[in-house]
């Protein structure tokens, strides 16, 4: 208070009343009200301030003081104002309502709006929380390649590229490489973009999304669930701790987030089928869950629910079978509460060489491309487990957003590669 400061930023909004112009200036860290009082500036400056339009870039110098009516809110009493650049045309995104396609076409500008600003800040906090969790729990960061010859998650949604004459895919998951890393480092994780040519338009699927994938040697499915639970509690509480203001801007009810505490309920796939039946869904054993089913299942719980042991036929080639019932996979999906769907998928890996070879054949995957992966079973095979958390689904859940398109700065979806 009382200090002279200079703000550099953009005009977000302006109101005027007689002798006063109220300029809302964004500088990237937040929005500050700058008051131009006729009695305190030159007539030229006062007139200039009257004609400023949205998104003009400017430099404002003035004194910090407490807001006249709002205790604890501060404003700048403007002494000098320098216009750096006026918009060449009227800024297309006004405070009025716009359609989603229009906003998505103008995503490069839309990012400047208050809600998008808040989402980007929460996303960055989630990413920082994810990294800090693994870095401070004995994991080593290992970067997985983006070009790969391996279809980790099945062949139906691969993006293929021409790699100097050979086919290569954009990676669907870094998991297979993390299994190699777990044998080198015990606990490893990767964090990077992953790609799926999802053919359907849903509110939870992107063609390019970011995934964090821990993998741990000598861990079983129960240990994997313990890890997923501890990790999620830590991420959610960090965001509640550091990003309250942003969640408030997003009008996110934080009570359901406060309830994200251990232990999370753990139910079998078969129990999830029962829940669906009781809710009037005509679900039967063998069905996979889509977004609607996940929503119904999650509704019975006040925190994330872990659904484990799906039929092996529904799952990728690398899962270990439950020795107590060979028709089931030792896998887990973590469903976020409030209908935000699956945020984590993972489980225990098959460590037996011949069973894994069989599974690669059953899934009609090319054996040659997986020889290196099979080596991990040839040389000191070990029980291990891990999971993948989708960052965008997590951002959607924590921010309370119905669609993943706003959770990533520049979404890539079925019909969107622009801007
Ligand atoms: O369940 P998924 O397919 O699991 C894997 O890829 C494993 N290889 C991970 C592992 O065990 N290391 O994907 C994991 C998570 C999902 O739970 C979801 O949060 C997210 O990744 N995800 C997507 N997010 C946005 N758009 C998509 N198309 C997504 N597909 C998966
Ligand atoms: Mg999954």
UniProtKB/TrEMBL annotation:
One Pfam family recorded for the sequence: tRNA-synt_2
A single MF term (Gene Ontology): nucleic acid binding
EC class (word): ligase
Domain Aminoacyl-transfer RNA synthetases class-II family profile: 120-409
The EC number(s) this enzyme carries: 6.1.1.22
Alphabetic keyword roster: Aminoacyl-tRNA synthetase, ATP-binding, Cytoplasm, Ligase, Nucleotide-binding, Protein biosynthesis
Catalysed transformations (reactions): tRNA(Asn) + L-asparagine + ATP = L-asparaginyl-tRNA(Asn) + AMP + diphosphate + H(+)
Main location: cytoplasm
UniProt-listed InterPro entries: Aa-tRNA-synt_II, aa-tRNA-synth_II, aa-tRNA-synth_II/BPL/LPL, Asn-tRNA-ligase, Asp/Asn-tRNA-synth_IIb, NA-bd_OB-fold, NA-bd_OB_tRNA
BP terms from Gene Ontology: asparaginyl-tRNA aminoacylation
Intracellular or extracellular location(s): Cytoplasm
GO cellular component: cytoplasm
PANTHER family per the UniProt record, alphabetical: ASPARAGINE--TRNA LIGASE, MITOCHONDRIAL-RELATED, ASPARTYL/LYSYL-TRNA SYNTHETASE
Membership in a protein family: Belongs to the class-II aminoacyl-tRNA synthetase family.
Oligomer and partners: Homodimer.
Record-given protein name: Asparagine--tRNA ligase
Gene: asnS
């Amino acid at each position: 208070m009382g200090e002279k400061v200079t703000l550099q930023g953009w005009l977000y909004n302006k109101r005027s009343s007689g002798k006063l112009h109220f300029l809302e200036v964004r500088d990237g860290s937040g929005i500050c009200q700058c008051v131009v009082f006729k009695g305190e500036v030159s007539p030229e400056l006062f007139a200039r301030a009257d004609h400023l339009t949205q998104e003009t870039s400017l430099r404002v110098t003035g004194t910090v003081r407490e807001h006249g009516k709002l205790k604890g809110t501060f404003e700048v009493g403007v002494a000098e104002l320098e216009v750096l650049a006026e918009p060449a045309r009227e800024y297309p995104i006004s405070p009025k309502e716009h359609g989603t396609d229009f906003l998505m076409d103008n995503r490069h500008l839309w990012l400047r709006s208050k809600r998008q600003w808040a989402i980007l800040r929460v996303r960055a906090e989630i990413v920082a929380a994810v990294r800090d969790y693994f870095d401070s729990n004995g994991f080593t960061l290992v970067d997985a390649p983006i070009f790969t010859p391996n279809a980790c998650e099945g062949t139906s949604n691969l993006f293929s590229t021409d790699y100097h004459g050979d086919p290569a895919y954009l990676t669907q998951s870094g998991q297979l490489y993390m299994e190699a890393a777990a044998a080198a480092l015990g606990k490893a994780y990767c964090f990077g973009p992953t790609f799926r040519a999802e053919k359907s338009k849903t509110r939870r699927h992107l063609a390019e999304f970011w995934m964090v994938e821990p993998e741990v040697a000598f861990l079983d499915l129960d240990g994997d669930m313990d890890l997923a639970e501890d990790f999620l509690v830590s991420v959610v509480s960090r965001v509640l701790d550091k990003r309250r203001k942003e969640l408030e801007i997003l009008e996110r009810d934080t009570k359901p987030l406060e309830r994200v505490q251990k232990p999370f309920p753990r139910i079998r796939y078969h129990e999830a089928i029962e829940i669906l039946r009781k809710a009037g869904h005509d679900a039967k054993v063998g069905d996979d869950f889509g977004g609607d089913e996940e929503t119904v299942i999650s509704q019975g719980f006040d925190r994330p629910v872990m659904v484990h042991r799906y039929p092996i036929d529904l799952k990728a080639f690398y899962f270990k079978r439950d020795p107590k019932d060979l028709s089931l996979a030792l896998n887990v999906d973590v469903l976020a509460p409030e209908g935000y769907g699956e945020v984590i998928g993972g489980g225990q890996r098959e460590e037996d060489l011949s069973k894994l070879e069989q599974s690669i054949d059953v899934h009609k995957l090319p054996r040659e491309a997986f020889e290196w992966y099979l080596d991990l079973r040839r040389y000191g095979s070990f029980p291990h487990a891990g999971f993948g958390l989708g960052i965008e689904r997590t951002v959607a859940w924590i921010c309370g957003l119905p669609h993943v398109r706003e959770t990533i700065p520049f979404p890539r979806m079925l019909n969107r590669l622009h801007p």
